[in-house]
Write the structure tokens for this entry.
Amino acid sequence: MSFNIAIDGPAGAGKSTIAKRAAKELSFIYVDTGAMYRAIALGLMRSDTEIEDERLLEQALAGIEVTIDYRDGVQQVYLNGENVSGLIRTEEVSAMTSACAAKPQVRAKLTDLQRDLARRENVLMDGRDIGTAILPDAQLKIYLTASVRTRAERRYKELLERGENCSLAEIEKEIGERDYRDMHRETAPLKQAEDAVLVDSSDMTIEEVTARIIQLARERMERGYGA
Ligand code: CDP
């Protein structure tokens, strides 16, 4: 039986950086579900699909296939066979992703892919609904959050380092809107699972949060959960 770790939380809480490091240390496979939603959003943007029209959305989704694999241990995401990993991190795609991710048809498309991976391997999976909807039986669930201000500052630095032009106020607004949409949608909204451990990273370094997650995982594995 595989051991599954679910990490959920809002944008910019540090999930992907921390999840990548913790997975490496634990020799788990890191699954970035956000990248899968982003790839679908890119597909819908490219086909200029009016996502509020159910029929058009379903038609477009039928022509979209998302797959992942790993290159040197790093997850790559493919849209109909094209590696789009480098194209999905823009603010435009982020905003479109959270609108698309509210659609049940979009979520249904990724559920089996995510569950299959978790059944076969020891995974550390991050997203919004992993502990609540995708892997309700995960042996360890973390809800990772931080204040909106801290999260906006982190994202701002990240974008500046990547050479993208941006303003802190705009990012704070964008993050606030995305959180609201993710938390208030009807299908699989972002919320802390009852049995998740809450980690607030506002005053913690990446190293501290990573160490905490590794410690929790090791404790649970020693207690005999999972493989
Ligand atoms: O890295 P960041 O937290 O900004 O975003 P992400 O994890 O790549 O997710 C992008 C968007 O995809 C989120 O704002 C959600 O709307 C959506 N998402 C989701 O609905 N469910 C997931 N399991 C993962 C992402």
